[in-house]
Design brief:
Elements lengths: L1 E4 L6 H11 L5 E4 L10 H10 L5 H6 L2 E4 L4 H15 L4 E7 L8 E7 L1 H9 L3
Parallel strand pairs: 1-2, 1-3, 3-4
Antiparallel strand pairs: 4-5
Helix pairs in contact: 2-4
Length: 126
């Protein structure tokens, strides 16, 4: 599985949590700078962000991908639309949560959200 990380670097512990939840090994982590210029249109910046993953059109459509989206909400939703166009489906996404009472703040993997399954369930509510 390839983890496309558009957020803060993940720890070895978080990667282990992801592997346990996914039931498969993270073979490669691709760290991608997700900074945007808020004064510029977001769609071209997010397309460039996705380009920085370095995947070919075939790889976008065939590799097992997991996405840790950027924290900025508009970047995240625009990125999901971009990735859906490249993959042909919504990739699964990592959700982190703060560890209660941790000082300094730490985060753990809360879940892997199967966005394509969310979409399919929602279609039944049309």
């Amino acid at each position: 599985m390839i983890l496309l990380n558009f957020s803060h670097p993940l720890t070895a512990e978080q990667l282990q949590q992801l592997e346990e939840l996914a039931g498969r090994k993270v073979d490669r982590v691709v760290e991608i700078d997700a900074q945007i210029d808020p004064q510029q249109p977001i769609a071209p910046q997010v397309a460039a962000m996705a380009d920085r993953a370095g995947l070919t059109p075939e790889e976008w459509q065939t590799l097992p991908l997991l996405v840790n989206p950027p924290s900025l909400n508009f970047s995240a939703v625009t990125l999901l639309a971009e990735l859906h166009g490249r993959c042909g489906y919504f990739p699964a996404a990592v959700r982190l949560r703060p560890v209660p009472g941790s000082v300094p703040p730490r985060f753990e993997v809360a879940e892997i959200v199967n966005l394509q399954a969310v979409r399919e369930r929602a279609r039944g509510k049309r």
